[in-house]
Protein backbone atom coordinates (compact mmCIF):
# COMPACT_ATOMS: atom_id res chain seq x y z
CA UNK A 1 0.00 0.00 0.00
CA UNK A 2 2.83 2.39 0.84
CA UNK A 3 4.31 1.91 -2.63
CA UNK A 4 0.93 2.77 -4.15
CA UNK A 5 0.58 5.91 -2.03
CA UNK A 6 3.99 7.13 -3.14
CA UNK A 7 3.02 6.40 -6.75
CA UNK A 8 -0.09 8.55 -6.43
CA UNK A 9 1.46 11.45 -4.52
CA UNK A 10 4.41 11.63 -6.91
CA UNK A 11 2.05 12.22 -9.82
CA UNK A 12 -0.92 14.07 -8.36
CA UNK A 13 1.05 16.23 -5.93
CA UNK A 14 3.43 17.34 -8.65
CA UNK A 15 0.57 18.23 -11.02
CA UNK A 16 -1.30 20.25 -8.40
CA UNK A 17 1.86 22.19 -7.57
CA UNK A 18 2.53 22.87 -11.26
CA UNK A 19 -1.10 23.89 -11.84
CA UNK A 20 -1.03 26.39 -8.97
CA UNK A 21 2.31 27.79 -10.12
CA UNK A 22 1.63 28.06 -13.85
CA UNK A 23 -2.09 28.91 -14.02
CA UNK A 24 -3.11 32.27 -12.49
CA UNK A 25 -6.36 32.14 -10.53
CA UNK A 26 -7.94 34.76 -12.80
CA UNK A 27 -6.83 33.10 -16.06
CA UNK A 28 -9.88 31.98 -18.08
CA UNK A 29 -10.29 28.35 -19.08
CA UNK A 30 -9.33 29.37 -22.64
CA UNK A 31 -6.16 31.14 -21.48
CA UNK A 32 -2.77 30.16 -22.95
CA UNK A 33 -1.47 29.24 -19.49
CA UNK A 34 -4.26 26.80 -18.71
CA UNK A 35 -4.33 25.40 -22.26
CA UNK A 36 -0.59 24.77 -22.05
CA UNK A 37 -1.01 22.97 -18.72
CA UNK A 38 -3.72 20.68 -20.13
CA UNK A 39 -1.66 19.99 -23.24
CA UNK A 40 1.17 18.66 -21.07
CA UNK A 41 -1.02 15.81 -19.77
CA UNK A 42 -0.77 12.48 -21.59
CA UNK A 43 -3.70 11.56 -23.82
CA UNK A 44 -5.60 8.35 -23.18
CA UNK A 45 -7.38 6.59 -20.33
CA UNK A 46 -5.67 5.39 -17.15
CA UNK A 47 -3.46 3.72 -16.12
CA UNK A 48 -1.08 5.16 -18.74
CA UNK A 49 -3.06 8.15 -20.02
CA UNK A 50 -4.18 11.23 -18.09
CA UNK A 51 -7.55 12.03 -19.67
CA UNK A 52 -9.24 11.80 -16.25
CA UNK A 53 -6.79 14.34 -14.84
CA UNK A 54 -7.29 16.64 -17.81
CA UNK A 55 -11.03 16.65 -17.16
CA UNK A 56 -10.51 17.05 -13.40
CA UNK A 57 -8.33 20.15 -13.70
CA UNK A 58 -10.75 21.59 -16.26
CA UNK A 59 -13.61 21.21 -13.76
CA UNK A 60 -11.49 22.70 -10.96
CA UNK A 61 -10.70 25.70 -13.12
CA UNK A 62 -14.29 26.12 -14.34
CA UNK A 63 -15.72 26.21 -10.83
CA UNK A 64 -13.66 29.31 -9.99
CA UNK A 65 -15.70 31.32 -12.51
CA UNK A 66 -19.08 29.73 -11.73
CA UNK A 67 -21.54 32.07 -9.93
CA UNK A 68 -23.86 29.29 -8.77
CA UNK A 69 -22.84 27.66 -5.47
CA UNK A 70 -24.69 24.47 -6.40
CA UNK A 71 -22.86 24.18 -9.72
CA UNK A 72 -19.50 24.96 -8.10
CA UNK A 73 -19.96 22.15 -5.60
CA UNK A 74 -20.93 19.71 -8.33
CA UNK A 75 -17.90 20.66 -10.43
CA UNK A 76 -15.57 20.17 -7.45
CA UNK A 77 -17.12 16.78 -6.66
CA UNK A 78 -16.83 15.77 -10.31
CA UNK A 79 -13.17 16.79 -10.40
CA UNK A 80 -12.46 14.87 -7.19
CA UNK A 81 -14.13 11.75 -8.61
CA UNK A 82 -12.23 11.97 -11.90
CA UNK A 83 -8.99 12.00 -9.93
CA UNK A 84 -10.24 9.06 -7.86
CA UNK A 85 -10.96 7.03 -11.02
CA UNK A 86 -7.48 7.80 -12.32
CA UNK A 87 -5.76 6.94 -9.03
CA UNK A 88 -7.70 3.76 -8.32
CA UNK A 89 -7.15 2.45 -11.85
CA UNK A 90 -3.41 3.10 -11.66
CA UNK A 91 -3.17 1.49 -8.22
CA UNK A 92 -5.12 -1.66 -9.08
CA UNK A 93 -1.99 -3.90 -9.28
CA UNK A 94 -0.59 -2.61 -5.97
CA UNK A 95 -3.93 -2.91 -4.12
CA UNK A 96 -4.59 -6.43 -5.41
CA UNK A 97 -1.05 -7.53 -4.55
CA UNK A 98 -1.28 -6.09 -1.02
CA UNK A 99 -4.52 -7.97 -0.32
CA UNK A 100 -3.28 -11.24 -1.84
CA UNK A 101 0.05 -11.47 -0.01
CA UNK A 102 -1.16 -14.17 2.41
CA UNK A 103 -2.38 -16.76 -0.15
CA UNK A 104 0.65 -16.18 -2.33
CA UNK A 105 2.87 -16.88 0.68
CA UNK A 106 0.91 -20.00 1.61
CA UNK A 107 1.06 -21.29 -1.97
CA UNK A 108 4.82 -20.75 -2.06
CA UNK A 109 5.29 -22.52 1.27
CA UNK A 110 3.22 -25.46 0.02
CA UNK A 111 5.39 -25.84 -3.06
CA UNK A 112 8.53 -25.69 -0.93
CA UNK A 113 7.16 -28.31 1.44
CA UNK A 114 6.60 -30.73 -1.43
CA UNK A 115 10.15 -30.26 -2.62
CA UNK A 116 11.55 -30.81 0.88
CA UNK A 117 9.44 -33.83 1.84
CA UNK A 118 9.69 -35.61 -1.51
CA UNK A 119 12.87 -34.43 -3.24
CA UNK A 120 13.34 -36.13 -6.57
CA UNK A 121 10.44 -38.52 -5.97
CA UNK A 122 9.15 -40.10 -9.24
CA UNK A 123 5.67 -40.20 -7.74
CA UNK A 124 5.76 -36.47 -7.24
CA UNK A 125 6.37 -36.02 -10.95
CA UNK A 126 3.39 -38.23 -11.80
CA UNK A 127 1.07 -36.29 -9.52
CA UNK A 128 2.46 -32.86 -10.29
CA UNK A 129 -0.29 -31.90 -12.86
CA UNK A 130 -3.05 -32.88 -10.42
CA UNK A 131 -1.30 -31.14 -7.55
CA UNK A 132 -0.85 -28.05 -9.69
CA UNK A 133 -4.56 -27.98 -10.52
CA UNK A 134 -5.52 -28.34 -6.86
CA UNK A 135 -3.08 -25.62 -5.85
CA UNK A 136 -4.55 -23.25 -8.44
CA UNK A 137 -8.08 -23.95 -7.18
CA UNK A 138 -6.91 -23.40 -3.61
CA UNK A 139 -5.07 -20.21 -4.50
CA UNK A 140 -8.18 -18.68 -6.13
CA UNK A 141 -10.32 -19.64 -3.13
CA UNK A 142 -7.73 -18.42 -0.62
CA UNK A 143 -7.29 -15.10 -2.43
CA UNK A 144 -11.02 -14.42 -2.42
CA UNK A 145 -11.47 -15.36 1.24
CA UNK A 146 -8.39 -13.42 2.31
CA UNK A 147 -9.39 -10.27 0.43
CA UNK A 148 -12.90 -10.40 1.87
CA UNK A 149 -11.61 -10.99 5.41
CA UNK A 150 -9.09 -8.14 5.19
CA UNK A 151 -11.70 -5.79 3.73
CA UNK A 152 -14.25 -6.61 6.43
CA UNK A 153 -11.89 -6.65 9.41
CA UNK A 154 -8.88 -4.46 8.73
CA UNK A 155 -9.67 -1.85 6.06
CA UNK A 156 -10.48 1.48 7.69
CA UNK A 157 -10.25 5.13 6.70
CA UNK A 158 -9.28 7.59 9.43
CA UNK A 159 -10.78 11.08 9.15
CA UNK A 160 -9.94 13.88 11.59
CA UNK A 161 -12.99 13.17 13.74
CA UNK A 162 -14.04 9.58 13.00
CA UNK A 163 -12.94 6.24 11.55
CA UNK A 164 -14.85 4.58 8.70
CA UNK A 165 -14.91 0.83 8.08
CA UNK A 166 -14.62 0.27 4.33
CA UNK A 167 -16.52 -3.01 4.47
CA UNK A 168 -19.62 -1.35 5.93
CA UNK A 169 -22.24 0.94 4.44
CA UNK A 170 -21.89 4.70 4.94
CA UNK A 171 -24.81 5.83 7.07
CA UNK A 172 -24.30 9.53 6.39
CA UNK A 173 -26.72 11.84 4.56
CA UNK A 174 -25.88 13.66 1.35
CA UNK A 175 -25.54 17.44 1.86
CA UNK A 176 -28.28 19.55 0.33
CA UNK A 177 -26.00 21.13 -2.29
CA UNK A 178 -25.41 17.66 -3.78
CA UNK A 179 -28.82 16.06 -3.24
CA UNK A 180 -29.94 16.81 -6.80
CA UNK A 181 -27.21 16.29 -9.39
CA UNK A 182 -27.88 18.53 -12.38
CA UNK A 183 -24.48 18.34 -14.09
CA UNK A 184 -24.78 15.68 -16.80
CA UNK A 185 -21.14 14.53 -16.59
CA UNK A 186 -21.42 14.09 -12.83
CA UNK A 187 -24.66 12.13 -13.15
CA UNK A 188 -23.10 9.87 -15.79
CA UNK A 189 -20.00 9.18 -13.69
CA UNK A 190 -22.06 8.37 -10.59
CA UNK A 191 -24.32 6.03 -12.56
CA UNK A 192 -21.28 3.98 -13.56
CA UNK A 193 -20.79 2.90 -9.97
CA UNK A 194 -24.05 3.18 -8.07
CA UNK A 195 -27.83 3.44 -8.47
CA UNK A 196 -29.18 6.93 -9.01
CA UNK A 197 -30.74 6.81 -5.54
CA UNK A 198 -27.20 7.32 -4.24
CA UNK A 199 -26.40 6.81 -0.61
CA UNK A 200 -29.54 4.78 0.15
CA UNK A 201 -28.00 1.57 -1.22
CA UNK A 202 -25.29 -0.43 0.57
CA UNK A 203 -21.90 0.83 -0.57
CA UNK A 204 -19.83 -1.27 1.85
CA UNK A 205 -17.16 -3.19 -0.05
CA UNK A 206 -16.85 -6.95 0.19
CA UNK A 207 -13.52 -7.00 -1.66
CA UNK A 208 -11.38 -3.84 -1.66
CA UNK A 209 -9.30 -5.33 -4.49
CA UNK A 210 -12.33 -5.00 -6.79
CA UNK A 211 -12.06 -1.66 -8.63
CA UNK A 212 -15.81 -1.25 -9.16
CA UNK A 213 -16.57 -1.90 -5.48
CA UNK A 214 -13.90 0.60 -4.42
CA UNK A 215 -15.29 3.29 -6.69
CA UNK A 216 -18.84 2.59 -5.49
CA UNK A 217 -17.67 3.31 -1.94
CA UNK A 218 -15.62 6.35 -2.98
CA UNK A 219 -18.55 7.91 -4.86
CA UNK A 220 -20.64 7.63 -1.68
CA UNK A 221 -17.78 8.88 0.48
CA UNK A 222 -16.94 11.94 -1.59
CA UNK A 223 -20.58 12.91 -1.98
CA UNK A 224 -21.59 12.41 1.66
CA UNK A 225 -18.50 14.13 3.13
CA UNK A 226 -18.17 16.89 0.54
CA UNK A 227 -19.10 19.58 3.10
CA UNK A 228 -17.85 17.80 6.23
CA UNK A 229 -16.50 20.59 8.51
CA UNK A 230 -13.52 18.63 9.84
CA UNK A 231 -12.19 18.17 6.30
CA UNK A 232 -12.10 21.93 5.73
CA UNK A 233 -9.42 22.52 8.35
CA UNK A 234 -5.67 22.50 7.61
CA UNK A 235 -4.32 18.95 8.00
CA UNK A 236 -1.35 20.07 10.13
CA UNK A 237 -0.75 22.74 12.74
CA UNK A 238 1.93 25.40 12.24
CA UNK A 239 4.25 23.53 14.63
CA UNK A 240 3.72 20.27 12.75
CA UNK A 241 4.46 22.00 9.45
CA UNK A 242 7.74 23.32 10.86
CA UNK A 243 8.72 19.77 11.83
CA UNK A 244 7.75 18.41 8.42
CA UNK A 245 9.71 21.10 6.59
CA UNK A 246 12.76 20.20 8.66
CA UNK A 247 12.44 16.56 7.60
CA UNK A 248 11.07 15.26 10.91
CA UNK A 249 7.90 13.34 11.75
CA UNK A 250 5.74 15.72 13.83
CA UNK A 251 4.17 14.88 17.17
CA UNK A 252 0.44 14.87 17.83
CA UNK A 253 -2.52 13.64 15.82
CA UNK A 254 -1.67 12.97 12.17
In oligomeric terms, what are we looking at? single chain
The major sheet is characterized as:
2 strands, antiparallel
Shape annotation: globular
Indicate the structural class.
mainly alpha
Radius of gyration, whole Å: 23 Å
Q: What is the percent of helical residues?
A: 55-70%
Strand order of the largest sheet: 1-2
**Average of the residue pLDDT scores:** 83
Distance between the termini: 18 Å
Q: Helical stretch count? A: 10
Strand content: under 5%
Weakly predicted, low-confidence segments: none
How many domains make up the coordinates? 3
* Count of strand segments: 2
Q: State the order of secondary-structure elements, H for helix, E for strand.
A: HHHHHHHEEHHH
Amino acid sequence: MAVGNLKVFAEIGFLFARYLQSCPADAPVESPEFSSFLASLRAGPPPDGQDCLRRAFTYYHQQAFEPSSETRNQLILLANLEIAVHEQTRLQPEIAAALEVLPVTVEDLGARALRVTSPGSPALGLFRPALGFLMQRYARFAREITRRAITDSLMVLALPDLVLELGHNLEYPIPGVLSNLTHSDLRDLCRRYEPETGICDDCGTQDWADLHQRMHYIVHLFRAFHCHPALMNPPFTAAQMDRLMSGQVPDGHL
